[in-house]
Amino acid sequence: DRAEPSLTCFELQQRVQMQIFQETELVIDPAFFTALQQRFPQIDRVQIQLMRGKHHNELVAFRYNAILHISDETVSIEPVSDRDNYLTLNWSEANLTISAIRQLLIDDRPERLNILNIPNARVISAVKTVAWLAEPAGYKTVGQIRKALQEIEMGIDPADWDTIDLPYSVDLTWSSSSSEGNYDVMFIRQDALTERTISQQRTTDIRPWQAYANNPLQAKAARQLVPQLQSYLAQKLPEYMLPSVFVVLESLPLTANGKVDRRALQALSDPIASRSPNRDIAPRTPVESVLASIFTEVLGLKRVGIYDNFFELGGHSLLATQLVSRVRDALQVELPLRSVFEASTIDRLATVVESLQHDPPSQAPALVPLSRESRRMKLPSSQGGKIDAQGEGENRQRTDRSGSSYS
């Protein structure tokens, strides 16, 4: 949503991989809890419930509740399909609608009705985007993906099932037979609701335990590594050779031939600050807008935020000189070079510029071009028109003591 339309899908994919690597929150696959049943037989049943709510945010769209029912003895429950008055329908195969389901519940009054593989309006855009990014011959830019998302069917919002006002309890769970973010709905008639009527979430897909979650500790290790590298290099290298940006990767991207994929590295070379939340804070004043434009031009970035640091974005003393020159041309202010080092963010530098606009310093003498003759040093001569060696020696001595040079 925040990427510029011209950004290529390849570059966006690299940013996504970077964010996954830097994720500090533990994220668990719902299948982990169903896999626990195979390890611990005292788990009678597992319920994975979708969050209730109408707002499409991270909490409602991607989080879930897991309920583990523990029993002293293993209970064998017959499959739902073998029971009378229990119906199971597939949403796409049966071409269903919410109104058709409501009418079915009124007419047939089944004890339980399962509806499988319902497209989830909460996550379908994200799931489609992930799939398209993985296609090498798919869309090329973010703008093309946005246009394609506007044309897809958005599915059914899980909150819409709450509009069925009938004597049935409604249980929403992630679909175990779909990897597209679909969900299942179970209707249980109130007079048939018992302890043993909750569906069993069984699975035969047993994976290594680390495959069910991410590793948030690697991001913590990466955050500790970068300051250590900066401190170490500061002791070994001069300041102008210190890297301005550190990009931590799980591994170097490789081509099909096993060589380092330099194109992928180039996509990651955009400074880390470009993915910082600071970039979302737009200029608030005309001066900040001008400075933001100058920052992007000098640093070669597409956009910056008012709290982004000029030197952390890749700036150095030579670029700071260019910055001062462009500020002079755009805002007619003689900005001291030291101000860029003392106030290296747009918001702080804007304050300095505004103070100079209201209270400019004394007028500096105008710079005028000098001719070649005026820059040539005249050596002292004797009365006979020859160079006075004594005077020349005195002049050389004075020059040498001052540390200057002359021609």
Q: How is this structure best summarized?
A:
The protein is of the alpha+beta class and 407 residues long. It has 15 helices and six strands.
Q: Name the poorly predicted regions.
A: 74-82, 195-199, 271-278, 384-407
Mean pLDDT: 78
Strands side by side in the biggest sheet: 3-4-6-5
Order of helices and strands: HHEHEEHHEHHEEHHHHHHHH
Q: Can you give the helix content as a percent range?
A: 25-40%
Give the count of helical stretches. Answer: 15
- Label the structural class: alpha+beta
Cα radius of gyration in angstroms: 34 Å
User: Count the strands?
Assistant: 6
Q: How would the global form be characterised?
A: elongated
Main sheet, how many strands, which sense, barrel? 4 strands, mixed
Distance between the termini: 63 Å
- Please state roughly what percent of the residues sit in beta strands, choosing from under 5%, 5-15%, 15-25%, 25-35%, 35-45% or over 45%: 5-15%
